[in-house]
Design goal:
Length: 267
């Protein structure tokens, strides 16, 4: 497993899920497949079904690779330093969302999930995962993901992520729309409306807000500070408020810059 997750203490209001890299090269390989719109292939690699690449027509292969490289490339200044701005934030967001998806997919291999975004302009839910019962007639869990690759997770959670999750909690239409779409892949037509309704029930709904964090914040006070006020999402158990934390380096942007270079190398 290129990246592992473990339960860590946060606060009385939520549970923590910390992600740590085991094999950065293999993680870059999986992210490369995701950025080429081949998330299903990355899923098969995680499941041990396949290990080799997909063969496309030569022209298609080159176009797909180039589009992925373009999405992962940030302009540099005269000194060779990446220019901070929209392009950088979008690039890092694409990479982080792919990492978030890989963590979720590895630990819930049979769940149905939205593929991660591969375009920086894509709007809507960052991610949605529905865990079904073995006979696929009940929804066990619906997890709504909000992934933010930022340098100040505490501020972003309080003023951006939490308000977004509260909107999803109060107005379920966007969740229902996404749930209905991914349920189409596995549920017969006649059952889809009722299963979609089950998927947004407060008894199964969960939220996972995730950020990269530096080692200096990887302690109980630091984690509790990031996810302060999570209990504003009411009517669900503590275990359904999840704080995802990707343990990066102190300089988060520098880590994503070098990781982008690795992913491009895998393309």
């Amino acid at each position: 497993m290129p990246i592992s997750s473990s339960t860590v203490e946060v606060s009385d209001d939520c549970v923590g899920n910390r992600w740590e890299i085991n094999d950065e090269n293999e993680l870059a390989n999986l992210v490369a497949f995701v950025t080429k719109a081949q998330a299903i292939h990355a899923q098969n690699i995680l499941a041990g079904i396949v290990s080799d690449s997909i063969v496309f027509e030569a022209a298609q292969e080159q176009q797909i690779k180039q589009s992925a490289i373009d999405a992962l490339t940030v302009p540099k200044d005269a000194h060779g330093k990446e220019i901070r701005g929209t392009a950088l934030w979008h690039r890092d967001g694409i990479l982080f969302e792919a990492i978030s998806w890989i963590v979720a997919r590895k630990h819930f291999p049979d769940a149905i999930m939205r593929d991660p975004h591969i375009s920086p302009t894509t709007q809507g839910l960052d991610g949605l995962m529905i865990v079904l019962s073995p006979d696929m007639d009940e929804v066990l869990s619906t997890i709504i993901f909000e992934d933010k690759c930022v340098e100040d997770p505490t501020h972003t959670f309080r003023y951006e992520t939490l308000p977004a999750l509260l909107r999803f909690h109060v107005d379920s239409r966007k969740v229902l729309e996404s749930a209905s779409t991914i349920l189409q892949t596995v549920i017969p037509l006649a059952q889809r409306p009722s299963m979609a309704a089950k998927s947004i029930s407060s008894t199964v709904r969960a939220y996972r807000a995730s950020f990269p964090i530096p080692p200096s914040m990887d302690n109980v006070p630091g984690r509790a500070g990031i996810f302060d006020r999570y209990n504003q999402i009411v009517g669900i158990a503590k275990e359904r408020r999840i704080g995802g934390m990707f343990l990066a380096t102190e300089d988060i942007r520098a880590w994503f810059e070098q990781f982008a270079i690795k992913v491009i190398g895998k393309l």
